[in-house]
Amino acid sequence: MNYKDLLTGLEITDEKEVSPRPGTGSLATEVYYKKDDLFYGKLHIRKSNNAMYLSIISKIPFNWKLLVPDMKFSGTLIDSAGGLLWLKETDKTIDKDIAYIEKYLTDLKNKNNKN
Fold first, then answer.
1. CA distances (Å), 64 to each of 3, 16, 17, 19, in order?
2. Coil, strand or helix: which one is 7?
3. Nearest one of 89, 104, 80, 106 to 31, comparing CA atoms
4. What is the spatial distance between Cα 47 and Cα 19, in angstroms, rounded to a whole number?
5. In this structure, how many other beta carbons lie within 10 angstroms of the beta carbon of residue 89?
6. How are beta strands 11-18 and 28-35 bridged, if at all?
7. DSSP alpha helices (H): ranges in the chain?
8. What is the rounded distance in angstroms from the CA atom of residue 100 to the CA atom of residue 16?
9. Residue 104: what are its φ and ψ, rounded to 5°?
């Protein structure tokens, strides 16, 4: 599977193999991305089981933790703090969550610009 295809509509900025410790084999692939002036992050794909974790870092200052109870993600919420959000995704949920987050942040940005 080409994981870059899962990030359609996002600009891929880098891709790296990561290991748990220096000198050991690769544990995962991380694909770094950004979306305009809204958000950026990485898709972390574990080699052992293809589990995917999506990090989203908002460029709009706010705290995800206060908002996520009312948000409806297709993937599973792992953690949120400040402008950082972690979701566990599958190839069937990731595109829905990226579109949802893009719309949510665009609406938030437009609302902030009006104030």
1. 25, 27, 28, 28
2. helix
3. 89
4. 10
5. 24
6. antiparallel
7. 64-67, 94-114
8. 26
9. -60, -50
CB within 8 Å of 103: residues ≥ 6 apart: none
Which residues sit opposite 31 in a β-bridge? 15, 43
Residues of the chain with pLDDT under 50: none
Number of neighbours of residue 52 by Cβ within 10 angstroms: 23
User: 73-82: per-residue pLDDT in tens?
Assistant: 999 999 998 8
Sheet holding 11-18, edge to edge: 11-18, 28-35, 39-46, 52-58, 84-89, 76-81
Per the CB < 8 A criterion, the answer to whether 109 and 38 are in contact is: yes
- Which one-letter DSSP state was computed for residue 110? H
Give the pLDDT confidence score for residue 4 in this predicted structure.
75
What is the C-alpha to C-alpha distance for residues 22 and 43, in angstroms, rounded to an integer? 21
Tell me the β-bridge partners of 24.
none
